[in-house]
Prior knowledge:
There is one protein chain. This protein is mainly alpha-helical. It has a two-stranded antiparallel sheet. 68% of the residues lie in helices and 2% in strands. The chain contains 6 helices and 2 strands. Helix 1 (28-50) crosses helix 3, helix 4 (114-136) packs antiparallel against helix 5 and helix 4 (114-136) runs parallel beside helix 6 (203-240). It has helices at residues 28-50, 57-77, 85-101, 114-136, 154-201, 203-240, and strands spanning 18-19, 22-23.
Amino acid sequence: MEESPLHPFELHEWIPISLFGLDISINKAVILMWIVVGVAAALLVIGGSARKMVPTKLQSLAELLVDFIRGIILDTMGKDGMKFFPLVATLFVFILFSNLLGLIPGSYTVTSQIIVTAVFAISVYALSVALGFMLHGIKFLGILVPPGTPGWLLPLMIPIELVSQLARPVSLAVRLFANMTAGHTILGVLFGLAIGGGLLIGWLPFAFTIAMNALEVGIAFIQAYIFTVLSCVYLGDAVTLHGHGDAHAH
């Protein structure tokens, strides 16, 4: 019986733990999350603590990462968005390192779990909504009316905008989850074909596996970038109300 290509995504309890009826068992995904946090923290702490005039490779990498995240925030939210730097940096670094470490054979891609991406997406969207109401009060509902919309079109535009708003966390979560799952599934199938084909024809899928791995590195970075940019756009919309609100009303 052939093994399912989705078998690598299955999770099994390593250390069963139950707290007040809630299953918080330790499994491979939990361990990988700890590793991701540890590796990312080590890079930023060690790279940031050096601060030499002639930067080390680790310091250069940490500075490049910080400058890149700062650029995302400035491009999408402007200088006022820098107050969200800790949140945005945490999102980008965690997702990027989860995607990249998941490419190591025998490892596990945390972002291939819809529950992980959904928690991030819903948290970011809920924060943007709460922020919008906190800054603008009831005027935040104006986000459902795009600038320049004529009055007679409002009964049609408002339901469409409402559905669009509700779809934001769904699309944010599914895009990341689906891309990481699909890429790793294809890699698993190609690797299986390479082993099953033997030396005679197995080299062809093996060559595709190498090419796909290189492509997956790019996808890992792009998906982290897209998730972060969209998160900044949602937060920016809440602050500026499509860029036409009284962003500093309070």
